[in-house]
Design goal:
Blueprint lengths: L1 H12 L21 H13 L1 E6 L5 H16 L2 E6 L4 H10 L8 E2 L10 E6 H5 L10 E5 L11 H11 L16 E5 L8 H10 L5 H8 E2 L9 E2 L4 H9 L2 E4 L3 H4 L13 E8 L24 H10 L1 H12 L7 E4 L3 H10 L3 E3 L6 H12 L5 E4 L1 H4 L11 E4 L6 H8 L11 E8 L3 H16 L1
Parallel strand pairs: 1-6, 1-9, 2-4, 2-5, 3-4, 5-6, 10-15, 11-13, 11-14, 12-13, 14-15
Antiparallel strand pairs: 7-8
Length: about 450
């Protein structure tokens, strides 16, 4: 009896996120949605402020659109999707082809372009730079919300906290008012071992302040900021708390309980091919005493990696050409990081089109849509810009990376433009690096292995 009472006492101390949305029956949800998507919509609407972490290809796009539509039937007014550049075409396509809408959500950059009601879409830069005020919308959803992972050091995070919650940071007003009361975040790649990312989502959703969550669940590392170690006796409580506001879905049966719902949701095989090319030791530089170095240093830091990439640029692009020559008619994504790489890739692949930051958004979207529809054979882009949100798997199963680096989130997002549910072929990934970048390869492989274990 005493043990039972003590267990009840302990459970009463567990802090869980309470629902703050609206009752939602499955009958209110668009019948075109699959069973797992209907359950996702119901959970989001009833929670009011929730995170949807669903694997690549589980239809987060239509889930967000329908969650906003149902919420607006309760509140009236406008709804807003905020998405990375170049992703609006996916929302339009799915709204029409899956949900049966006559047209997709209208893309806007200013409130004057919107009516008093309806669902609209914009990009992160428009909101961050103050061109569109989210406070004029009843409900909002952040697509590919991993942009918030920078926390206080990120302009996007600081501005979104101020605009959505009224939290102006430690030197401003910390009242945390729900300016946009109903809000969702959606991404396929939260990192459960990166606790600070999860705390950033919780803070944005108004579940718990980051500093409060740190104090409640974690030991601090005095030698390194935000290197959090969870208290062993708090680990179960922490994940119960996370599960009260965040939905992790790797396959439909996680929600429906019916393994038959997993048919068609099996990830394709992945064929990884590493290509090491020689470093140019003639440009190794000199020691502090002026003596010439015999070998190029291992590029283990950001500065060393950037230098090695510049020195090996031509050889890496030549290697891309050699690899791609195995099948001249194949549809291939050519990933790169530097503008000089892009220009060299464009010369080396006359049939390739590139997307880059200074392009008009409309031109960029047309290029991506043509590649997605199989009208374009080769597409070049940076994982940091094109790697999130776009679905490119219908006609392409081959990606070549001109180099490797330290930005794992951008890298894994770019991998899953092809490696996702709906891909019918084996996904081939060719990764080029120099001998001075062997340690970078090891770090990348280690992070990739950790990611796959989550």
């Amino acid at each position: 009896m005493i043990d039972t009472e003590y267990d009840s006492f302990l459970k009463s101390k567990v802090r869980l996120a309470q629902p703050d949305g609206f009752e939602c029956s499955l009958e209110e949800i668009n019948p075109a949605l699959k069973p797992h998507n209907k359950l996702m919509v119901k959970w989001l609407v009833e929670g009011g402020r929730r995170a949807c972490f669903a694997s690549f290809g589980l239809h987060k796009t239509v889930t967000q659109l329908e969650a906003l539509r149902v919420t607006l039937t309760k509140t009236g007014g406008r709804g807003l999707i905020i998405a990375p550049l170049g992703v609006r075409a996916e929302f339009t396509k799915d709204a029409i082809n899956i949900l049966g809408w006559s047209e997709g959500p209208k893309f806007i950059r200013r409130i004057e372009e919107a009516d008093e009601t309806g669902i609209y879409i914009t990009n992160y830069e428009t909101v961050r730079d103050g061109k569109l005020d989210p406070r004029l919308f009843e409900v909002a959803s952040l697509d590919e919300a991993s942009v918030l992972r920078g926390l206080g050091g990120s302009k996007t995070f600081r501005e979104f906290m101020r605009l959505f919650t009224g939290d102006s940071g430690p030197n401003g007003d910390r009242r945390g008012t729900d300016i946009v009361k109903y809000r969702f975040v959606a991404t396929a790649t939260p990192s459960p071992n990166d606790y600070i990312e999860l705390l950033a989502y919780a803070d944005f959703l108004g579940i718990m302040d980051v500093s409060q969550a740190k104090t409640r669940f974690f030991k601090r590392d005095s030698t390194k900021a935000d290197n959090l170690k969870i208290y062993p006796h708090k680990e179960e409580e922490f994940w119960m708390w996370v599960a009260s506001w965040a939905l992790f879905v790797s396959k439909p049966s996680d929600l429906t309980g019916d393994e038959n719902d997993d048919k068609g949701y099996i990830l394709p095989a992945l064929d990884i091919r590493w290509h090491e090319i020689p470093s140019d030791h003639t440009k190794a530089g000199t020691e502090k005493n002026g003596q010439f170095k015999a070998f190029a240093e291992t590029a283990i830091g950001l500065e060393g990696s950037a230098k090695e990439k510049r020195l090996s640029l031509k050889n890496r692009v030549d290697k891309m050409v050699s690899i791609a020559s195995e099948d001249q008619n194949a549809h291939i994504i050519l990933w790169h990081d530097l503008e000089d790489e892009r220009r060299m890739i464009e010369k080396a692949f006359p049939d390739c089109k590139s997307v880059f930051g200074s392009q008009k958004l409309e031109i960029r979207e047309d290029i991506v849509m043509d590649f997605s529809a199989g009208k374009l054979g080769k597409l070049a882009g940076k994982p940091s810009m094109l790697g999130s949100g776009t679905n490119l798997q219908k006609f392409c199963s081959w990606a070549i990376y001109s180099g490797i680096g330290f930005k794992f989130n951008d890298f894994i997002q770019s991998i899953h433009r092809l490696l996702r549910f709906g891909q019918t072929g084996t996904v081939r990934v060719d990764l080029i690096y120099t001998e001075a970048e062997r340690q970078i390869r090891k770090q990348l492989e280690r992070k990739w292995q950790q990611h796959n274990l989550m």
